[in-house]
Write a structure and sequence with these properties.
The complex is a heterodimer. By secondary structure, chain A is α/β, with parallel strands linked by helices. Helices cover about 40% and strands about 10% of the residues of chain A. In chain A, the strands form 2 sheets. In chain A, strands 1, 2, 3, 8 and 9 form a 5-stranded parallel beta sheet that branches. In chain A, strands 4-5-7-6 form a 4-stranded mixed beta sheet. Chain B is globular and about 50 Å long. Classes of the chains: A alpha/beta, B alpha/beta.
């Protein structure tokens, strides 16, 4: 038994990455970032607002949170709708109470089906980020470039129609991209994506697109659903992260703390009190700059 | 190993009861070594017929970028905390990192860390290799680490824990003297090989940060408590035990985890029973303790 000789050839073994999408950069070697008012920790909340067709698609893959039982999966279809009808409005109220502006990564289908929700987001001063068409709109390199281009354009168009302006940011379902995605996003007028969780500050792709790293490890899905920890532990972990980053920021420049939320996860009654207390705790810290993705992008561009 | 045999014949059965206690240098009871995995995962690796690299079609953005966090952010944060509390690393190294990100390797070397091989890439598996191919990755590892750091590797942790029936014999033949791939003991033990002098160095899957966070789904503070309990128990037992803390900086170096981990290092460093050291030093001390007993 032996392997194909090519398995021991390494054509991309060289200085830097094994791809040409973006350059390597070690965090400690970068010019310190200055956020507005000398704040240490840009605290960026991203809420995913999603519509799951009861007829799930596995092409190119089934989205996280999608239907699980044989058709018709009432339990998951309705539990996801709960997030949009109930949980999301709990979150909007909590953000208003704490004076926090956030980014909402919305499926185009939310604008088409529930335009009043999009208007409520815009009226409250939150940012809309494009988050594909609906939860069947997953992207991977097994999707044709034409189909991917159409999906990106359809998502942006649907959201722009209702919001009154085009989104500046893009968040792929499950952060999954193809090798074509970043170029297609630039072509569609997108300024930043959130998919590459390889860093803790914004950075630029070689084609000019900015990545705002949306840490998947700190998402409510990862901590509460995947790892099955309690909401109290979730809040403790977020505060621990904030404290660590605030300490780093005092000597190394601004840091970024991303909180990725799903209304059908964090927006449940038994979790909301803890989440509201978390917002209060973060708001009371002098280092906190609650910011939308677009604010972080603008500040990053002006300080580097 | 005895290929095809039900018992692979890796080592002699040597139960814990009846072993003679011995002291580590400085009259310490438990040797503690920290093993950061400094890795490179390829974005579009060739397929190995025996194991898939990524769950998603390439690029697997979450998988790739999560590991990339180690080299951009995690390593630097983790290494600072380790140095602050006096813990050197014994690095499980994807040796191609010497080409891709020599900054990371140079930083570890400058901190006095030891290197052993974890294969060329963590996306190239040994499964299915013939002897010549396996010799090629061992020779590549020795040469690459020597060129990059001046160190001669003494140990091996198979890339992504993928082995062949020949691996242990081959690394022993090339003069490597410890393997981190066997999990049968809390002390070094001799390994049966056709030539050379190979011992098993207690590494750990159970308290590996990957297991803690993704197999046992621990919170950062639960993982920290686990490490403290592991340390205290090993320190309480008859002298001569080994505790390894295997790490991946894209996990332990996350901002919600590093603070709890720093507390672990602070507590172990303050315990006079701990010999805080590197894998090669443990191998040397264990061999001289065995020789002393034989004399």
């Amino acid at each position: 038994m032996s392997l194909d000789p090519a398995y021991l050839e390494y054509p991309h073994r060289r200085a830097g990455y094994d791809h040409d999408m973006y350059p390597y950069s070690a965090l400690p070697t970068r010019k310190p970032v200055a956020w507005p008012d000398g704040k240490g920790v840009a605290t960026w909340i991203v809420v995913s607002l999603e519509w799951f067709p009861i007829t799930p698609s596995d092409t190119p893959f089934r989205a996280p949170g999608h239907m699980q039982t044989a058709y018709p999966d009432y339990r998951h279809y309705t539990a996801r709708e709960y997030g949009t009808r109930i949980g999301f409005y709990r979150l909007l109220d909590a953000f208003a109470k704490a004076g926090v502006k956030v980014s909402v990564a919305a499926n185009g289908a939310i604008a088409q089906r529930y335009p009043s929700v999009i208007r409520d987001i815009v009226d409250a001063g939150h940012e809309i980020i494009a988050h594909s068409t609906d939860m069947n709109g997953t992207i991977a390199s097994t999707l044709s470039v034409e189909a991917e281009r159409a999906l990106i354009r359809e998502s942006i168009a649907a959201l722009s129609d209702v919001a009154g302006h085009p989104p500046r940011g893009w968040c792929s379902i499950a952060r999954s991209q193809s090798f074509a995605t970043t170029d297609l996003l630039i072509e569609a007028g997108i300024e930043y994506c959130c998919d590459w969780a390889n860093d803790e500050l914004p950075w630029a792709f070689n084609n000019g697109l900015i990545n705002l790293p949306l840490n998947h490890e700190l998402s409510d899905r990862q901590i509460l659903n995947v790892q099955q920890q309690s909401v109290d532990s979730y809040a403790e972990q977020i505060i621990d992260a904030h404290d660590w980053l605030a300490d780093e920021a005092r000597s190394n420049g601004g840091r970024l703390l991303p909180l990725h939320l799903s209304p059908y996860i964090i927006g449940l009654p038994y979790r909301m009190d803890t989440f509201e207390r978390l917002l209060e705790t973060l708001a009371a810290k002098p280092d906190t700059w609650f910011a939308r993705g677009c604010d972080i992008l603008d500040s990053f561009r002006s300080s580097t | 190993m005895d290929e095809g045999a039900a018992d692979p014949g890796l080592y002699a059965f040597n139960p814990y009861r009846g072993r003679k206690p011995f002291a580590w240098p400085g009259d310490k009871k438990v040797a503690v070594w920290v093993s950061p995995n400094l890795e490179y995962y390829e974005i579009d690796p060739p397929a190995n017929p025996h194991r898939k690299s990524w769950a998603k079609p390439h690029p697997d953005v979450v998988g790739y970028s999560h590991r990339d966090h180690a080299n951009r952010v995690g390593h630097w944060r983790m290494a600072e905390v380790m140095s602050k509390h006096g813990f050197p690393g014994s690095v499980s190294l994807s040796v191609a990192l010497c080409q891709h990100h020599p900054e990371v390797v140079a930083d570890a070397n400058a901190r006095g860390w030891e290197f052993f091989s974890h294969g060329i890439y963590n996306t190239r598996y040994s499964y299915g290799m013939d002897e010549a191919q396996e010799r090629a990755i061992i020779e590549d590892s020795i040469r690459t680490v020597r060129d990059a750091t001046g160190q001669t590797i003494r140990g091996w942790l198979a890339p992504a824990l993928t082995h062949t029936p020949r691996t242990l014999d081959l690394i022993a033949e090339y003069g490597l003297d410890y393997t981190c791939d066997l999990y049968h003991d809390d002390q070094p033990q001799r390994v049966n090989t056709t030539s050379g002098d190979l011992i098993s160095m207690p590494y750990s899957l159970e308290v590996n940060d990957h297991y803690g966070f993704f197999i046992y789904n621990m919170s950062p503070r639960e993982y920290a408590k686990t490490l403290i309990r592991q340390f205290k128990r090993l320190a309480d037992e008859p002298s001569g035990t080994v505790m390894c803390i295997p790490l991946h900086s894209y996990l332990i170096g996350q901002p919600h985890r590093i603070g709890a981990f720093e507390e672990v290092l602070r507590q172990i460093a303050a315990d006079s029973r701990a010999w805080i050291t590197r894998a090669g030093d443990i191998a040397d001390a264990w061999r001289s303790a065995q020789m002393g007993e034989a004399a």
